[in-house]
Amino acid sequence: MSELAKYNEVAEEFATEELVLNMGPQHPSTHGVLRVVLKLDGEIVTDLDCDIGYLHRGVEKICEHRTYAMIAPYFDRTDYVAAVSNGLCYVETVEKAMGIEVPPRAQYLRVALTELSRISSHLLWLGTHAMDVGAMTIFLWAFREREEILKIFENFFGARLTCHAFRIGGMSYDAYEGFEQEVKQFCDRFPTRLAEMEQMLNSNRIWLSRTVGVGIISAEDAIDLGLTGACLRGSGIEWDIRKAHPYECYSELEFDIPYGENGDTYDRYLVRMEEMRQARRIVIQTIDKLPTGAVTAARVPKVLKPPAGDYYHSNESPKGELGIYLVSDGSTQPVRLRIRPPCFVNLQALKKMCVGRLYADVVAVIGTLDIVLGEVDR
User: Fold this and answer.
1) Which of 143, 147, 300, 334 is most solvent-facing, going by the fewest CB within 10 Å?
2) 7 confidence band (pLDDT: 50, 70, 90)
3) Is residue 1 very low, low, confident or very high in pLDDT (cuts 50, 70, 90)?
4) In this structure, are residues 256 and 262 in contact, taking their beta carbons and an 8 Å threshold?
5) What is the CATH number of the domain that holds 164?
6) What three-state secondary structure class fits 361?
7) Angle at CA of residue 226, ends 21 and 22, nearest 5°
8) Domain total of the chain
């Protein structure tokens, strides 16, 4: 037998077939009911498809059969990890349509609570993402800090997770006694705790090997796919709606936009860590500058009827650009309401990031996208 024949015989004996593997929809590292259909050559991902819709509740269609005031709580339950900031986008959309001007005190309170929600969302992302990779301690530390924010939310809203924070025209009630002191106490402790988490991860060989150079997406591809938030800024694009199109009182506050260079999982980790520092910086400014006065606009009609027309408004949620497209016919209910969820759009980058990588890298890449399936499926 010739050498070539021997080689072909050995190659045929050890040849592998393409394996189709289901990851989810009950897998813990898919961060919800996400089903990922993987095609593998050994441990190398050759193709990937996301099967979504397991958490679909028809929120947009429900909103077409509710009054404008009744719709607001539904947005607390899309990205339920950041209910406060998601609820803000809806009330701002209606206020924009009706030309309602929110009092300065309400604007500052809204921003303070929204940025605390950003920190809370990022802490949950950090804890779960680190645990996916194998760092259990960070999970416990991150949830310890998040708990302090949830205590503030519980005192303010009476709820910890799906906080119905805002009303069309401002706030339902003013800050409780001791709110500013509790927020300042959290802000004073937080930098030290965040530095401890970074010290644990930044020089950890396992963390670096699982994140550096993994899930790379270029700036051009990120723009083409419509990525927003840290997923876009991690690729070197300095874009943040709070700076580009300021809303509430953001134009009166000082903060920086962190962005990466390599577009990999590690850069997105660094971006979100710095975003938490900048969010803390914003919160401190809002508390120090908190004006006196009313927290609800003086002229908010009891029956809300936005003028007939099309309206779009977006803001910078913890996951990226959250947008709402609203069509009004002048009645008490919208003709059409469409949500532009950042998680849904960012998820389409999963295939681009994972093909050619190891199966284990899929877990790290899903974590770096920071998706919430309530917002993906709606």
Assistant:
1) 147
2) very low
3) low
4) no
5) 1.10.645.10
6) helix
7) 10
8) 1
